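Predict structure. Chain length: 191.
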Amino acid sequence: MMTLDFLDAGLILRFAINLAAMTVLIFGMFYMRYRDKELVTAASLFNIFAFGVLSILGSVEFSLAAGFGLFAILALFTLRSEQISKIEITYFFGSISIAVICSIQGTTLPFVCVVVGLVLLGAYLFDHPRILKSVDGIKVTLDKIDPDALSDPAKMRSALSARLGVQVMSYQITALNYITDMAQINVFYRK
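Prediction complete.
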């Protein structure tokens, strides 16, 4: 009986909207721009799992706040295993947000489509390569830890600029390993 109620309420249509929006966000925008297969898989599957669980929770007496809390905890467990960039976490959150928007019962399908469309439009515009076309970033592993990496950022930027042949705007140290004398950094440079 509950299955028929879900079908009558447009669950399949909501799932199709969710899949279409998630595909545009994760495959059409994120993957085409950043080529990170691992995050694409994780965000896509997390979107589908979130949609399923939220659809079930929406059909029983369970508060939406409790559902958000549950997914916040799950996201922390999932994402704490390795450091990911701000862009990656933003697209991951976007994938989850689309699942939440699409799975909430009590909203009309046109309203869901408009909100999802606005989310996708915002992501497309604000992460479009032409908006920040003069600045780019790259992950670099250095075979030797520069003594200026922490103590003299200006000198380190100059050294990175000379070594990479670009104007380094800033850098972020993600890991220092004094045993192997290696440093991992994110370098942001002007093209």
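Summary: The longest helix spans residues 11-34.
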